[in-house]
Amino acid sequence: MTNKKYATALGQVLELSLLVNDDMTQSLARDGLTTARAHLLWELAQRGPSTQRVLADALDVSARNITGLVDALVATGFVTREPHPTDRRATLVSFTEHGAATARALGEGQQEFADLLFAGMPEARFDCFVDGLGEVLDRLRERLQADKAADTDQPPKQPEEAHA
Fold this sequence. Notes:
- The structure is a single chain.
- This protein is mostly helical.
- It has three domains: 1-29; 31-119, Arc Repressor Mutant, subunit A (Orthogonal Bundle), CATH 1.10.10.10; 122-152.
- It is built from six helices and three strands; from the N terminus they run ααβααββαα.
- A three-stranded antiparallel sheet has the order 1-3-2.
- The longest helix has 31 residues, at 123-153.
- It is globular, with a radius of gyration of 21 Å.
- The termini are far apart.
């Protein structure tokens, strides 16, 4: 394959990424959610009632960041904080009825979107698409992990000396 084909493919992947992101942002905004808040709801739907520490780890964010996300979701009626049954220092984040219904609707919306994108695609083409995309994602994940490892292996930067 030529480099021009690679550039065309990358352009299509980037356009897909932008279009999916725009659609998701608009859809979530209708429910009063941001991408980060929806991610927290999705994690909560997968895990059930969870401590903020568990949610922070799942979202790979700081304790301070998760507190802000949970505060916003409590204020808008999606989740509650309840005492942990066995650890009096911890609280559990749980869905309200509204939050659980919203999480279900988000899952249903995701299925509808998948149907819109892929229904009617010949099975062989769909299988090739999934396999190819999986390969691309694996390469990107490996690259990002290698970059992250390289960043952590670097010696600490020395402060710059003052210039006279």
